Amino acid sequence: MYAVRVEKLNKTYFGKNIILNDIDLEMEAGGFTVLLGPSGCGKSTLLRMVAGLEDVTSGKVFIGDKDVTLLDPKDRDIAMVFQSYALFPHMTVAQNIGFGLKLRKVSKNEINVMVKQVADMLQIGHLLDRTPAELSGGQRQRVAIGRALVRQPKVFLFDEPLSNLDAKLRGEMRIELKKLHTALDTTIIYVTHDQIEAMTLATKIVVLNKGHVQQVGTPYEIYNKPANVFVARFVGTPLINILECTLAKEGDVPGIKLHDKFIPLPHYEFNEPFQEGRAALFGIRPEHVSQFKESENSHEIKATVVAFEKTGSETLAEFSCNGSTVRAKLDANVKINNGDEFTLYLALDNVSLFDFTTEQRI
Fold first, then answer.
1. How many Å is the maximal CA-CA distance in the chain?
2. What separation in angstroms does the CA of 129 have from each of 11, 100, 105, 116?
3. Which end of the chain is more exposed for a tag (fewer CB within 10 A), N or C?
4. What is the pLDDT of residue 296?
């Protein structure tokens, strides 16, 4: 297995349009690294630079210990799966999967054996004689993945491979990709703007925005300990609640003043020395706002219903509380109408604090 590393990687167009700015990253060997971020953040450009499909303005790309910055894509021993599948319409499934091996002058018998092995692994062995036009979107994506797998490269690169599938198929393919990574025990780098894909597939997530790395961490760390307000807001649905507050103390107990009420946070892990009176932002996810008191470490607030939607499994509601908007996930069968007043409980075991000015975690 091979790790992928980039050092001081920069990409600019016309000398001024900065796409990537001084990126330092190591994508671990055997890991499933997901590059996550909004459209235009530079994630696909970074992937294409690893693949050799985009020139590097400055910096270096390593696969294993080898500097591949100036190597052609064919010499990097990587395989890439694109959003558009990029299958040859006039070829059968078997011919599409085996095309790269044919170019490498592998014998016909070996190609047949390897293609059958990969097709059976992806459960498309019964489709080998069909053309892409005769396949569903999910089947075409499996063929594209099979074409990458059959080459047995050092690193697999996926560029938003599920974005053209419907929601049901995306869910099925996420499970298949997870199984595939476990079975192959190989290095995968995967680009998406879909946070559900990132959270379910990744061993490590790299969150990008405007060409800068915002945070690198496990799905748990990204979700529960976001490095800044951007990460907190980008990951998680419904949107995290971000409320203005100030740091405060009662005796030796640290906490915050929220709507003129003291909320103790004795178990919060501060990244820097506590500074009483500091303007801050209090982040709490909607699933930790409930009409029930889940634990002793909860804070009660009164709030008025502004809007709500029932999804079947839960009720998503938006409240007004002292001029602030608070979102909550409530029970599916809760009786609720606009204008109703609710008593809500903030579960304080999973909260985040950010500096008011820099929006960095404190």
1. 78
2. 43, 18, 22, 12
3. N
4. 79
Q: What b/e string do you get for 129-155 counting C-beta neighbours within 10 Å, with b at 16 or more?
A: eebbeebeebbbbbbbbbbbbbbebbb
The rounded distance, in Å, linking the Cα atoms of 292 and 7 is 49
pLDDT of residue 195: 92
**What pTM does this model have?**
0.91
Q: Is residue 250 packed enough to be buried (19+ CB in 10 Å), middle (13-18) or exposed (0-12)?
A: exposed
pLDDT digits over 248-298, tens only? 999 999 999 998 899 999 999 999 999 999 999 999 999 999 998 877 789
pLDDT tens, position by position, 92-116: 999 999 998 998 899 999 999 999 9
Asked if the bond preceding 238 is cis, omega within 30° of 0, the reply is yes
Q: Which two tokens stand for residue 95?
A: 């011919």
Cα 243 from Cα 306, distance rounded (Å) = 17
- Strands 187-192, 32-36: pairing is parallel
| Residue appearing with tokens 């990687």 | 9
Q: What are the tokens at 42?
A: 């530079």
Contacts with 243 (C-beta within 8 Å, 6 or more apart), sequence order: 258, 281, 282, 283, 284, 324, 326
Would the pLDDT of 304 be above 70?
yes
Question: What local confidence, expressed as pLDDT, does residue 1 receive?
Answer: 63
DSSP string, 52-74: TSS--SEEEEEETTEE-TTS-GG
Q: Are 184 and 176 in contact (CB under 8 A)?
A: no
Q: Return mean pLDDT, the chain.
A: 93
Q: Give the integer Cα–Cα distance in Å for 164 and 150.
A: 23
